[in-house]
Design a protein that fits this description.
301 residues; Jelly Rolls; three-stranded mixed β-sheet
Amino acid sequence: MKEEEIIKKWLDNETLSGEELQFLQENKAFKDYQKIAENATYFKAPQIDIHNGLKSVVEKTREKKSKKVWINQLTRIAAILVIAIGSYFLFFHSTQTQIDTLANVTKQVSLPDDSEVILNAGSSISYNKDTWTGNREVHLDGEAFFKVAKGKKFTVITSLGEVSVLGTQFNIRQRDNSIYVDCYEGLVEVKINNKRIKLPAGNSIAFRNEQLNEYENTGNSSTWLQGKSTFKSVPLREVFKEFERQYDIKIQTKNLTLNQDKWFTGSFTHKNIETAIKSITLPFGLDYSIQEDEIIVSARE
């Protein structure tokens, strides 16, 4: 029998015959084989119960997943509660007051310190009544005339700039990319693009298309308070928009070659639509027709 076969049987723990056992014991290398076999036991892989091991892994994975889902659900519940509580306080405890006017409507408003505001058509203001005593701030979108009661600093904030006073009468018109400020009594400070301008009574400023101009005004108050819109070097397009606000009607242009950005100086009444449209179209040689819900303005044939 070959030596390799006997050694293999011995390593596999197979039963050896007396002759095979005698052969190994007489073999000079048998002792070395025994030492190798003994040391090899330290490197044998442990037996694994695959079924129980897999079951354990699955249970641990489920436990972790369940814990993660629970945490996620708790986080969502907390977020919903925060939003709900915040909405409740915002809805029921908000101290922000907002007043709006529709087209063809003006409104007089008394502020907490008895300052007066008259809102022009298509405009809005907002303020915080609870913090008013220490912070007289009004946010304006549109046009309004202010008669401010004396007291602490009074500030009107628009998207293009701020106007601050202590007590005076002034008018602000902020439309699209333009803002106009007219001071009729006292002194106002206008802040536009980080530039501060002191505006005394009888003076006005216009900020339009990133250009700032200052000029004199001769009236005692804004003409729109007496039912008339007045403009000085204002684009015709802007005049048409103000007309739409005052009469709640759309102006459509037809075959109009005139540059609508040409400046208009003049006024139109709020009391008669035909007289008003004539005031605008006649200086430019334009024709018009008044429909039920719109006015068609066209070049004169």
